[in-house]
């Protein structure tokens, strides 16, 4: 999982979890096929769609840098990434 940096938890990404879509930041040099292969191999799920966009980098005096891009990964119905679901349900139970 060298290309995937970390999962993203924003209002939009939490709303997308209901549609079986997971959001994560990945290395800017990774291709869609590499990310798809890593997700399917590591989590044992089937990916049906992937959307990506580059985030604006931090401004520097001499140019600006982009270190990562954001991927929204859509899984087939019936599949899920267990650690994200378990953590989310634990937090919801603790709040009530």
List the helices and strands and how they pair.
Layout: E1 4-7, H1 11-17, E2 21-27, H2 32-43, E3 47-54, E4 59-60, E5 63-64, E6 68-75, H3 82-95
Antiparallel strand pairs: 1-2, 2-6, 3-6, 4-5
Task: Average the pLDDT over all residues and give the rounded result.
Answer: 80
The CATH topology comes to Alpha-Beta Plaits
Radius of gyration: 15 Å
Going by CATH, the architecture would be 2-Layer Sandwich
- The DSSP helix count reads 3
Low-confidence stretches: none
Number of strands: 6
Which series of helices and strands comes N to C?
A: EHEHEEEEH
Q: What can you see in these coordinates?
A:
The protein has one domain: Alpha-Beta Plaits. The protein has 96 residues and is of the alpha+beta class. It has a 4-stranded antiparallel beta sheet with strand order 1-2-6-3, sandwiched between helices. The protein has a two-stranded antiparallel ribbon with strand order 4-5. The longest helix is centred in the last third of the chain and has 14 residues. Helices cover 34% and strands 32% of the residues. It is built from 3 helices and 6 strands. The model has no long low-confidence stretch (mean pLDDT 80). A hairpin with a 2-residue loop joins strand 4 and strand 5.
């Amino acid at each position: 999982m060298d290309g995937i940096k970390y999962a993203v938890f924003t209002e939009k990404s939490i709303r997308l979890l209901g549609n079986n879509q997971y959001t994560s930041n990945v290395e800017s040099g990774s291709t869609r096929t590499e990310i798809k292969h890593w997700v399917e191999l590591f989590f044992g799920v089937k990916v049906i769609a992937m959307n990506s966009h580059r985030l604006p980098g931090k401004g520097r005096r001499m140019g600006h840098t982009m270190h990562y891009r954001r991927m929204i990964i859509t899984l087939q119905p019936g599949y899920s990434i267990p650690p994200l679901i378990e953590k989310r349900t634990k937090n919801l139970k603790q709040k009530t």
